[in-house]
Specification:
heterodimer; A: alpha+beta; 16% strand; B: alpha+beta; two-stranded antiparallel sheet; 3 helices
């Protein structure tokens, strides 16, 4: 039974010397929690689709990673999130882009796949779709973190568009 | 950006990716994550989730290209993952990483940056977490 799960929390210029032991431990704990959420599904015979959704939801809820709570800011100071899922067996896919109110965008992506004939819904209409489907919404301040706000200030000052990990980790 | 790929006990494959995009991005900008075939892909051969400079992953259809390298080029999953991360994505003007799992449950992990937050779980074995190269 080669059930296997892999996760990522983003790639970039992640420098050991910039990461305190405490902060590294926080990241490792969150990654371990995400693997455990997926493992709970796979070890009970659940589907790969359920496993990836559960693992990503844990990381969306963790403010350390750039998705859901803790997402990065646009130049306009807003937060716009994107997500996608794909089921290899059924060859079905769902995605949302430019959403601002959905607590777990990965759940909305799956709802697009399972409850509409479409693949991708964008913007406020995608937020409204998630609300109509009973998915949990959150106020803008839920997604906001000081760490990402400081990263935006640094990027604005440097006139850069940057990966979430390409700005000094110690921000504010 | 965060993502997951899985192969379950029945041999099914799935992928998921979620992101806030890049810091200081223009409002309205969409990267690769929600674009099927660019940042997220799953078929009967492999499941893929990407992270990095999204525009480069879009330009080379990175996630789908990984599957094509396996299906048409006969590359094993790790070699296909490395080809995309270390050759195709940089050739398209960007950098980043990918995670993948094939139909046998074999993992593929590659990134062209100094680090990638990543985890690997083979059911029945201890979980593996890594950050740096």
């Amino acid at each position: 039974m080669n059930a296997t799960l892999l996760i990522h929390g983003g790639a970039g210029t992640i420098r050991r010397e910039e990461m305190s032991e405490a902060r590294e431990a926080e990241h490792r704990a969150a990654l371990t929690e995400a693997l455990a959420a997926g493992e709970a599904v796979l070890s009970s015979g659940g589907s790969a689709l359920d496993a990836v959704e559960q693992a990503v939801r844990v990381l969306e809820d963790c403010p350390l990673f750039n998705a859901g709570r803790g997402a990065t800011f646009t130049a306009a100071g807003s937060i716009e999130m994107d997500a996608a899922v794909m089921d290899g067996m059924a060859r079905m896919a769902g995605a949302v882009a430019g959403v601002q109110r959905i607590r777990n965008p990965v759940r909305a992506a799956r709802a697009v796949m399972e409850r509409t004939p479409h693949v991708l819904l964008i913007g406020p209409a995608a937020d409204d779709f998630a609300a109509a489907e009973g998915l949990e919404l959150a106020a803008p301040e839920y997604f906001r973190t000081e760490h990402r706000w400081q990263q935006l200030q640094a990027a604005l000052a440097a006139r850069r568009i940057a990966l979430d990990h390409d700005l000094p980790a110690r921000m504010g | 950006t965060v993502g997951a790929v899985a192969r379950d006990a029945a041999g099914r494959l799935a992928a998921a990716t979620s992101t806030g995009g890049m810091t200081n991005k223009r409002a309205g900008r969409v990267g690769d994550s929600p674009l099927i075939g660019a940042g997220t892909w799953a078929d009967g051969t492999v499941a893929v989730s990407c992270t990095g400079i999204g525009e480069a992953f879009i330009r080379c259809a990175a996630a789908h290209e990984l599957s094509a390298l396996m299906r048409h080029g006969g590359l094993p999953v790790q070699q296909a993952t490395a080809e995309v991360a270390e050759v195709l994505v940089p050739a398209s003007g960007g950098s980043g990483g990918l995670i993948a799992v094939d139909a046998e449950g074999r993992p593929g992990i590659a990134f062209g940056t100094s680090g990638m937050y990543r985890g690997l779980l083979r059911l029945g074995a201890p979980p593996e977490i890594a950050i740096y190269r």
